[in-house]
Specification:
The chain is of the alpha+beta class and 630 residues long. Helices cover 25% and strands 30% of the residues. It has 15 helices and 29 strands. An eight-stranded antiparallel β-sheet has the order 10-9-14-7-8-13-11-12. Helix 13 runs antiparallel to helix 15. The longest helix is centred in the last third of the chain and has 21 residues. The radius of gyration is 29 Å and the shape is globular. The two termini are 35 Å apart. The N terminus and C terminus are likely disordered.
Length: 630
């Protein structure tokens, strides 16, 4: 791990000298950047890295803090990244220590944003001067205000010909209650106004507050797994001081470790002599067990432990469930280890083992949305060299039986209580916030009503932009809702949603039967009105995918005992009359009857083998793709 070139502040400020001198909390400024996708967060972070000198021109590249290939390919931020930068303010001449956390903008990674906000005292609200504030930005802004963060409003991309800074400055001022002149105007691409922004961060963001002589307490806000060094834990120190070679203690489980290395990210890991109040950095203990470093836990020292832990983060609630199965059954242990290591880096991922008659052993995984599902699957395949099948995504239902016989929590169609009398089915609902130009109100309302949505309110943010609030079933949102919204509004609408309880739903389970036997991997829970559509599409798709057998194979879609759709795969017919060259017709009829009896017997004892390719093609709904620009 090589230290980057460029100035990193004096030893007094960074605590990296031979004598351990605590960094004065008065010169520390912890802040994050919150914005919608494609509003310029990563570009602004690049300019800050250049201006503060922590990355020189030879090492500089676009999206410097986006470390994963997927982030660079898609142009989105998936993981929060923290970096320490020195900056001498031009207003008072003081050299400050800036700890910046770059956050994702997509709704599926809002949990990353919530953890970043808990480690900061200020937030830069970045808005595109050509597009205005978006739904996800608004949601992150409300989250920052709940955490009592100092908000610094900034309009980016003012160099664009389509930029309307005055109009959108008024819109931001109206939302957060400031003066339009207080909204800073920058161009992250050219660097215009970024130095002024750094000066404003130094003056407006409050210094961290903590007790330097109290027992140490630090909050874990992220972790990663390094194959050589084990678990690397990212922390924000609240009280006291954490030094190398101390024995630290995790307050949630009481496990102790010896610290091998303490340091800061600037922007590459840089070992220091310790971390004190307000500092953000990393710890390395050499531990390989990924379960011993949980995000949200409090770190203290073993010899002088704190008595009270810090308030952790709310555990994220999965919104979408999908099964992940290895193509090769012998890769099951590798998939389990890969999920363990990935969960350390992505605390919003939850999973539990499950098995399927068709797909073998795998895991039922919970995700925050379809893009989250897609990214996790892609990371597992790339980083751990696995070949996976993912089943059709679905949400969690609560099924109440008649006569108070109990209730079932259904995360998988195979958990559905078959043959039992059902009294009520409860489905999760979400509060959706849609921001769009006012001329698309009619199209948005038509779409939401078609998805069983209920309008909760509507507000005009400005003369031309409107905010609509709907309550929608989660099952309707997770598939093609966003794609439909974008197509109906020509790409101008933005969407944000959060879970808001549950409601009664008229839902049924659709089974797909092959030769009269249900195939659990193809079953789905859908609304009663959409059962026929799902049944016909799946049966017609399977008819094309499953190879023909020696006998006719019926493919049926059933709700309970009632068949709602059917397709048939025609039998392969051998020409048994080929050797008949003349003779009586009864001879030909006898051969045909013999063939008919043989097919009938084969139909009774034969099984339909569904090839792996058919499973992959049938379960690849194509609806998890291209949601990155949400």
């Amino acid at each position: 791990m090589s230290a980057p070139s460029g100035p990193t502040g004096s030893d007094r400020n960074t605590g990296s000298g031979t004598d351990r001198n605590r960094t004065d909390p008065a010169i520390i400024r912890n802040f994050c950047i919150i914005a919608h996708i494609d509003h310029g967060k990563s570009t602004l972070a690049d300019r800050m890295l250049q201006l503060t000198g922590v990355v020189d021109a030879r090492q500089m590249r676009a999206q410097y803090l986006d470390r994963m290939d997927i982030e660079r390919e898609r142009g989105i931020t998936i993981k929060s990244q923290n970096v320490r930068m020195p900056w001498t303010s031009r207003l008072d001449g003081v050299e400050y220590v800036l700890d910046m956390i770059d956050t994702p903008g997509h709704v599926d990674f809002s949990y990353e944003v919530s953890r970043s906000l808990a480690a900061c005292e200020g937030a830069v609200l970045l808005v595109d001067a050509a597009q205005g504030i978006e739904a996800q930005t608004l949601a992150n802004l409300y989250m920052a205000l709940e955490n009592d963060l100092q908000i610094i409003p900034v309009l980016n991309k003012i160099d664009l010909p389509a930029a309307q800074p005055d109009r959108y400055a008024e819109e931001i001022a109206h939302i957060i209650g400031c003066d339009p002149d207080d909204v800073l105007r920058v161009s992250a691409k050219t660097g215009l106004g970024v130095e002024d922004l750094l000066d404003v961060i130094c003056t407006q963001v409050p210094a961290p507050i903590g007790e330097a002589d109290s027992p140490p307490r630090a909050m874990i806000f992220d972790s990663v797994y390094d194959i050589y060094r084990g678990v690397i834990t990212y922390i924000r120190v609240i009280d006291g001081e954490i030094l190398p070679r101390q024995r630290i203690k995790m307050m949630s489980n009481g496990v102790t470790h010896e610290l091998l290395e303490v340091g800061v990210i600037s922007p590459e890991p840089k070992p220091t002599q310790g971390l004190s109040v307000g500092e953000v950095g990393y710890l390395i203990t050499g531990v390989k067990d990924v379960r011993q470093s949980r995000v949200g836990d409090t770190v203290t020292t073993a010899n002088k432990p704190a008595t009270e832990s810090l308030g952790g983060y709310r555990d994220p609630r999965p919104m979408v469930y999908s099964g992940l199965y290895p193509l090769d059954g012998s890769d099951y242990p590798l998939l389990r280890d890969a999920l363990d290591k990935l969960q350390l880096n992505d605390a919003a991922l939850v999973y539990e083992p499950e098995s399927s008659a068709a797909l073998g052993f795998g895991f039922r995984c919970g995700f925050l949305g379809l893009l989250h599902l897609e990214i996790v699957r892609e990371r597992l395949e790339r980083e751990f060299d696995l070949d996976l099948i993912s089943t059709a995504p679905n949400v969690v239902y609560r099924v109440v039986l008649e006569d108070k016989q109990g209730e079932y929590i259904v995360t998988n169609p195979s958990d559905w209580p078959a043959g039992r009398k059902i009294a009520e089915i409860w489905e999760p609902v979400a509060k959706a916030m849609i921001i769009a130009p006012s001329e698309y109100i009619g199209a948005i309302m038509e779409l939401c009503q078609g998805k069983r949505g209920i309008l909760q309110g509507m507000d005009y943010l400005s003369e031309t932009r409107v905010e609509l609030r709907y309550t929608l079933p989660m099952g309707e949102i997770i598939f093609d809702f966003f794609d439909s919204l974008k197509s109906r509004t020509r790409g101008y609408a933005s969407l944000d949603y959060e879970v808001a309880g549950e409601q009664l739903g008229d839902l049924v389970k659709v089974d797909i039967l092959l030769q009269g036997e249900a195939v659990d991997a193809f079953s789905a829970i859908v609304h009663k009105d959409k059962a026929y559509g799902y049944g016909t599409s799946m049966t017609s798709k399977l008819r094309e995918l499953i190879p023909r057998q020696q006998f006719e194979v019926p493919i049926q879609a059933a709700v309970g005992a009632r068949i709602i759709a059917r397709e048939s795969i025609r039998a392969i017919r051998k020409d048994v009359l080929a050797k008949c060259y003349g003779g009586d017709i009864t001879r030909k009829r006898k051969l045909l009857e013999k063939q008919k009896e043989g097919k009938k017997r084969m139909k009774m004892v034969g099984r339909v083998e569904v090839p792996q390719e058919a499973f992959i093609a049938a379960l690849s709904t194509g609806e998890t793709g291209d949601t990155a620009k949400k």
